[in-house]
Design brief:
- This protein has helices at about 15-30, 60-70, 80-85, 100-110; strands at about 1-5, 35-40, 75-80, 95-100, 115.
- Helix 1 links the parallel strand 1 and strand 2 (about 35-40).
- The protein is of the alpha/beta class.
- The protein has 4 helices and 5 strands.
- Helix 1 (about 15-30) packs parallel to helix 2.
- The two termini are about 20 Å apart.
- The chain is globular, with a radius of gyration of 13 Å.
- It has a single domain (about 1-115), classed as DsrEFH-like (Hypothetical Protein Ychn, Chain: A), CATH 3.40.1260.
């Protein structure tokens, strides 16, 4: 089974990215045969910026993304959204790729479940 999780909100300020990544991590833990795909859109592309420094005890989106990637999860960030936010040329978290609407469409068609946060 393939699950696509689309994240639209910034990494901090709301808990949408946090909850999406919690779900991705739990899917990988409880269902290791499931392929987890994450597509970052709109302000969520900033989830892919490395060297995030959060207060002690506060969740860290970078660490969560790295965990998903380390367990075989695929993470892509919308190129148009990245360009609009000035991060397209920046180094991203290792394993995150700049992508396209075409890739999102292909993933959506190819996935068994599509969940949007």
């Amino acid at each position: 089974m393939k699950i696509l999780i689309i994240i639209n909100d910034a990494p901090y300020g709301t808990e949408k990215a946090y909850n999406a990544l919690r779900m991705a991590m739990m899917a990988q833990k409880e269902h290791p045969d499931v392929e987890v795909r994450i597509f970052l859109m709109a302000d969520a592309v900033t989830c892919a910026i490395p060297n995030q420094n959060t207060p002690q005890g506060y969740y860290n989106i970078e660490r969560m993304l790295r965990s998903v990637i380390s367990k075989g999860g695929l993470v892509k960030a919308c190129g148009t959204c990245s360009e609009a936010r000035g991060i397209k040329g920046l180094a991203l978290i290792e394993g995150v790729e700049i992508s396209t609407m075409s890739q999102l469409t292909n993933w959506s068609v190819d996935s068994d479940k599509v969940i949007s946060f």
